[in-house]
Structure formats: structure tokens, C-alpha cells
Amino acid sequence: MVVTGRAGLLAGLGVLFVALLMPSWSGVGVVVAVVLVVCLLDLLLAGSPRRLQLSRDGDTAVRLGQAAVVTLLVANPGRRVRGLLRDAWPPSAGVQDPPHKLDLPGGERRRLVTHLVPTRRGDRKAYRVTIRSIGPLGFAGRQGSHEAPWTVRALPPFNSRKHLPSRLARLRELDGRTALLVRGQGTEFDSLRDYVPGDDVRSIDWRATARRSSVVLRTWRPERDRQVAIVIDSGRMSAGRVGDAPRLDHAMDAALLLAALATRAGDRVSLLACDSAVRADVRRPAPEDVLPSFVNALANVDAELVQTDFRVVVSQTLERLGQRSLVVLLTGLEPAVIEESLLPVIGPLLRRHVVVLASVADPRLDELESARADLIELYGAASAARSRLDRERVTAVLTRAGVTVVDENPDQIAPALADTYLSLKKAGRL
């Protein structure tokens, strides 16, 4: 028998009182009365779970898929409490531990550890702590709950950070340590060095050559302190699963790699997640705060099941930008949406800024297009081929309009977007 609070205890006493007033004491009545007496005695001797004092400590943030540790400190100012303690969290928090066994004498404290492996991004809040205190005879117990608030934020995992060292090596090659073969508009003079066969003759400094006995070459480096605006479409197109995660999660991963690379290149990076309304907004944080601010802002962004209003996206982007900037729009490459919603409103953005559209392609389409064993697979292959042709057509339309399109599978979208940024940097288009 487990009772909760004084109401259950009073109910048990009432049943015992009625049993004692029974006019005829049959054998069953005696047994019932004895059992009730023992249970009530056990109940009265059980420690009160409501008198326990609870506090928490531990991790407040963890990358998605990694383990977080939250400790619960339980202090007992009353009688000994023996039983079970359940630390309740939502299912997506990924609690790894069963209910804790508790044996806490009066005047002592216990530290209980809960391990969490979140399965979804966002804030995961503790629900409540429920304690069941069993009496010394083990026949009955008392149960009570406590509010012990705690929040663990599951951050984007940033799996693409493994590509960062190789892209930083390429960035160092561009950043004044080697000559650029293309003298792009907007590049900055870096230094002079001797001419080596194969260098671009357009970079020869004839005045410096006249003062020396050898041919001298100018080296150029990409301009720094440019502005990079990363815009993530959080509408319904981002809700579809591509591979083992939603398209939105792959877009976030690519955005984090680009932000880390652009920050190391000396550029200023901002973030906007938007559909019909702004969902996340980070405006030009300090270089050391770029990644922390981005992952915290994106942690609670989920794909909204609404059609993205690209008029809002473009106007919000233009509002945040002053000088000529690189705008990276991470969205789906759906022909109908692009042609009907994006292309009619993207003109003001293209006139003032360099625009890159990055989209996560579905590798399942390639598998469907190559499978033609029977009639059903043949229809699937025809549908996949039609989708591929539509994407190629809308890519050509965007390219003619002046948009650089990056359309890659989930595993390649992040490094491909980083390579596109480096290519623009090398060509001096930023």
C-alpha cells in the first residue's frame, strides 16, 4: 500500500476504524484488521518524502549526441527514508539511468547522478522528482514529489568541424603567404617578392623591378573585415528528412563551418534564421563569440510547417547589411518555390550583394534513378530523373540571375560551401 499525503493516511485510519466496529469478528475480519494495523504502523514509521530538501548541479549545455551529467543533492532533516527516487525528464532528454535506490538516514545527504544523452536539439527541462519512501516492514510506503528545476540545452553537434583544418590551410595560402594567380577586384597589396617562372605577369611591379636587378612581383591577399550574412530558411522545406536528420540540421552544420572559417579569415559574420518570422538573429558578434552565440541561437530553432515568405527574408537581410556583403542563403532547391517565391523578390539583394544559395540534395534520388529492375523501380527512376532535371533547370535560372548555387548531398554540403567561400575570396569578389 502506497499513500500520498495526509488524505491517504486519513483514509487508511478510517478503514481500520470501520473494521474495528464490525459487529461480528469473523476470521476474515480479524485478518483484515491485523493487516491494516501492520500497514498503518509501517506507514507511520516510514520517513516523510516531502521533508527532503533537493538541489541540483551539473551540465547546462551539451552537443547533441554527447552525454551530460546532472547531479541531484538530497538532504534529509527528518527520519530515515528508504525507497526509490525517480528523476523525471522528457523522453528526448535521453535519461540513461533507472530510478535511484535511496537509503538516507536523518541528518545526512546523498548525491545522485543522472546521465542524459539528448536525442533532439533545444532546451530539455527536468519535470519533477518523485520519491517513494517504504516503511521498515516493507508493507506500505509514502510518496511525494518535488520541483527541482534544471535545464540542459542540446546544441547542434557541428559534425563538419573535421573539415575545418584543411580549409584553414587553404585560407593560409590565400592570406598573403602565396601569390594569387588572379588579381581580383578588391584584393589588397601584401608584399613584393622575386618573380618565379609561371607567375602571372600582370602582377609584375615594373617600378620596383627598375630599381633592382631582378624582376619583382607583387603579391596580393584577400580583403579582410568583409561582412558575411548567413541566412537559414526555417520553413517547411527545411522540415524534410535527408539521410538521418532534417534538412535544417544539415544547413546548420554547414553554417557553423562557414562561420568558423570566415571568422578566421578576418570577416564579420552574422546569422539570421527566418521563414515567415525571424526565429534566430545574431548580429556581428565578437570573433571569439561567433560559434558560442551561433550554436546557442540555433539550439531552439525548429522547422516551422509554414511556407517561407521570401519577401520577409530579403527585407530582413537587407535591413541588417550596409556595405557590399556575401549573403549565403541555405534553403531547399524546390523549383516551384524558387521560381514563384524567391526569384521575384531577390533582385534588390543581387544588386547590392554577392548571393550564394546552398541546398541539401537528397542522395536517395540518385539511388532511385539507378534502380530499374522492375516496373515499380522504373517509375521511381523516371520520377527521380524528372526531379534532377528540374533542379538543374532552376540552378541554371539562378546562375543566370547572378546567384552562385551549391547543391550537394548532406555529407558534402558543408565542405562544398566552405570551398565556395574560399573561391570567392580568392577571386576578390567579396
UniProtKB/TrEMBL annotation:
Record Pfam families: DUF58
InterPro entries listed in its UniProt record: DUF58 (IPR002881)
Domain DUF58: 192-391
Protein's UniProt name: Uncharacterized protein (DUF58 family)
Species, as recorded: Kribbella italica
